[in-house]
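User: I'm new to structure prediction. If I give you an amino acid sequence, what do you actually give back? Let's try with this one:
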Amino acid sequence: MPPVTSSSSSPMAGNAHRNRVLGPRTAAVLVFGSSAAVLVVEMVSLRLLAPYLGLTLETSTMVIGIALTAIALGSWLGGRIADRVSPRRLLGPSLGVSGAVVALTPSVLRTTAEWAPSTLLLITSLTILVPGALLSAVTPIVTKLRLTTLAETGTVVGRLSGVGTVGAIVGTVLTGFVLLSRWPVSGILIGLGTLLVAGSALVEWRTRGWNGTPALLLAVVAGGLGTTVAPGGCDTETRYHCARVVADPDRRSGRTLLLDGVRHSYVDSDDPAFLKFTYVRAIASVIDATFPEGRPLAAHHLGGGGLTLPHYLEATRPGTRSLVSEIDSGIARINRERLHPGSAAGLSVRTEDGRIGLRRLDADSRDLVVGDAFGGVSVPWHLTTVEAMTDVRRVLDDDGLYVANLIDHGELAFARAVAATLGETFEHVALIGQPDDNRLGRTATPRGGNMVVLASDRPVDLSATQRALDARHTGWKIVAAGDLATWIGDAQPLTDDYAPVDQLLQPYGPKTSH
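Assistant: Good question. You get back a string of structure tokens that encode the predicted 3D arrangement of the chain. For your 514 residues, that looks like this:
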């Protein structure tokens, strides 16, 4: 029998000693940092794409799928290549090239979305896949450098795997709770790219290996300069939106609030009773036809936007108390500083999720609940369910009214489901929208785009509502009772357990304002 060779004299040990350039702390830092960076890129990419693809389940699924593909591909290829090439030659390029791509991502994606939208999905995939794969390759490369004997394989692999997982967790939490609330998306990615290139330079300095740092730094600088000229810039990047305020050239005091490139609100600070968007005029028509003229109301608003309706109610119904649940503190700040300087009596804005805001309200405490919350181009699904509407019904008094803005196109499957859901909760439901050419009985069915639903346990004067709609020149018609039931058809109510809003919704059609 041939003599047994000790692990310290094995070929693996000899290769490991020749290649080993990392101490345990350096190895942990590299694995931790690269894993965190992958998750930062993934989460920030969702924000970067929102103005062009929307904040939908499909967009989130696509980005997560690409990121996971990058992690799998990088881990597999990183391990294979590390077995064939000296691992110390791979670390610097992996960090540096990924940093350059990350820094260029904001300007490249925004330019592509505006000038070559048909290639946006391909470019998006590459800007996530390339840095994600290169960063994910760091863990198997570092593992190869740290292994000195088969006897410690489990310890090394397990430790570095755990460190990488912790890094991914920290990257996720840091991005969601800190980075996105304090810095713009472009700043986060350019800063991350700079750190990665700096890490690459440090690794190359220690190993005296490949030195492409100057070229990579030029790429980072190009990325920074590119964001200043690339289309799609924001006045403010809030925690949830890319926000802009655009002056109306035809009205000195008119302003339009754009969130992720979509018009969400129009505000005239000198004349709050001026309502430009048709859907806002429709909601105002419903309210004014339902409640006596000038009567103060206790109102709750799910979603704030530009606070157009709360200020309208204050102007036309002095003494109205409006409480607004607005999840985005950045939008609330824009309202205070740019859209509505100065405080309005009776108006209070809480930074909170609308569903949580409903739970905090007392029963029978509101005359009116207005739903105008949007995530991207759709109502957040948890504000559309039977359970959510049951909470709305709870806070309304016996004569209370719920009125909400919707957007849908095509077969209007989402709008039908919302109407079916309201029918499960309220005695009286109606839908208002731009009429289609097809008719059900005497009433035109909605064509799509913006629509308004209203619901109450008391009969709503639909004739008065239609007169108010006509007086405001909306061109919209009401669908109710049997016509509405026929239009709803076999649509199923939405519940907390099953609300496939993103699958039902067809959000894109002709340009629509929220």
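You can read the tokens as a compact description of the fold. Here is one thing that stands out. Residues 111 and 231 are 6 Å apart (CA to CA).
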